[in-house]
Design brief:
Layout (H helix, E strand, L loop, with lengths): L5 H16 L8 E5 L25 H13 L1 E5 L4 E2 L9 H4 L3 E4 L4 E4 L18 H17 L4 E2 L7 H9 L1 H10 L1 H26 L19 E3 L8 H7 L1 H10 L3 E6 L7 H5 L4 E7 L4 H4 L3 H9 L3 E4 L7 H7 L11 E4 L3 H10 L6
Parallel strand pairs: 1-11, 3-6, 7-8, 8-9, 9-10
Antiparallel strand pairs: 1-2, 4-5
Helix pairs in contact: 2-4, 4-7, 5-6, 5-7, 6-7, 7-9
Length: 362
């Protein structure tokens, strides 16, 4: 049995409303404890993952039953809630919807161009019969039948427009085309934006009865939202970003409620000013990367995002420095902290963290 009551849903939603208004008085702090007794035997079906996302021998009912079992072994505290991330079809799965070859791996899914076509002859179109698209729809339908909206099934990782295009052309080829055929790249980016929105809203139509909406980032929202991205931007100038990516971000974020942006790596920082200028992007997730990126002080970036009136999600290890980071932002409500996972043996330690910042329920 999944441990999350109607009262907990009401408190969660009310807390997020206050947070967006700047009235909660603290950061968002989700805490999940693993190792609870699920109350029933483990199903035979494995947990749905990158490596088996293309295994169609499992029925969608078996997949949902295993998800239900896994959720039943968790306890939710602070600002956490029952969530199925639905990211295991891979980052940028829209490429598979458009015909790219999907290749599962242990910790991700890779996408490869279907065949080489001159860019001027390349056109994208919405394919309602795509096997992966329909598989995802069937999983959503089975989840809604099972949970009736009391578990949040997140939006799949559709991908960023330029990242999808890189999967369809190949990254090196796209780097050549932005220089040799910028008009054709722009045309394809616009095509992808329109199709992206069509896929998004068709999938959302199935899960619209949920208590909240989310995406691969695990961030909940009362209305359909998304965390947008462009990992390809690491390799292009700010001028190119404004030419090929800005319109896509502006249009998709305008169609959504309280969109975030996934800013990944030091090489993406030159585009931060552009991102902060888009009013319909309401928050930035800053991911500096591993190694030096995690150990370096990024207070200036966090402060800049907060001063621009955006929510900020520092996506790196900040627990020892949370008090200091709270002082950097305009107000504690500007901070979103990613879900913290603790084992049952570490539960007291986790609850002390919530108590320290006022995130324990009254």
């Amino acid at each position: 049995m999944i441990r999350f009551s109607d009262k907990q849903w009401d408190v969660l939603i009310n807390n997020y409303r206050k947070w967006w208004k700047g009235e909660l008085g603290r950061p968002i702090l989700p805490l999940i404890i693993s190792g609870a007794d699920p109350g029933r035997p483990m199903p035979k079906a494995p947990s749905h993952h990158f490596s088996n996302c293309a295994d169609f021998s499992l029925s969608v009912e078996e997949i949902i039953d295993r998800m239900d079992f896994d959720l039943s072994s968790l306890e939710f505290y602070g600002d956490s809630f029952p969530l199925v991330r639905m990211a295991h079809f891979g980052p940028g799965v829209m490429a598979a919807f458009l015909g790219a070859r999907l290749e599962p791996a242990e910790d991700t899914v890779w996408f490869y161009p279907p065949k080489k076509v001159p860019i001027e002859d390349l056109h994208f179109s919405y394919d309602e019969s795509n096997i992966y698209f329909n598989r995802i729809k069937d999983i959503y339908r089975a989840g809604m039948k099972k949970w009736g909206g009391n578990v949040c099934m997140a939006m799949i990782d559709i991908g960023g427009g330029m990242d999808v295009l890189a999967s369809m052309l190949g990254t090196e080829e796209l780097l050549i085309e932005v220089l040799d055929n910028p008009k054709e790249v722009k045309r394809l980016c616009l095509e992808i934006t329109e199709i992206w929105l069509k896929y998004y809203w068709e999938l959302n139509d199935i899960i619209k009865g949920q208590r909240v909406f989310s995406d691969w980032s695990s961030r909940p929202n009362e209305k359909p939202s998304y965390i947008l991205q462009c990992d390809f931007c690491y390799m292009i100038s700010t001028k190119m970003f404004n030419e090929f990516v800005y319109d896509d971000l502006s249009k998709t974020s305008s169609a959504l409620d309280k969109a975030f942006y996934h800013l990944d790596g030091k090489g993406a920082l030159p585009h931060l000013d552009t991102l902060l200028s888009i009013d319909t992007i309401k928050g930035i997730q800053w991911v500096p990367g591993s190694g030096e990126g995690e150990s370096k002080n990024w207070d200036d970036i966090i402060e800049k995002i907060s001063k621009a009136g955006k929510k900020v999600w520092p996506a790196y290890k900040i627990d020892p420095n949370l008090d200091k980071i709270i002082k950097v932002v305009k107000k504690p409500d500007d901070l979103y902290i990613a879900p913290r996972y603790y084992s049952m043996n570490e539960k007291k330690e986790g609850l002390k963290l919530l108590e320290k910042y006022g995130a324990m329920p009254s």
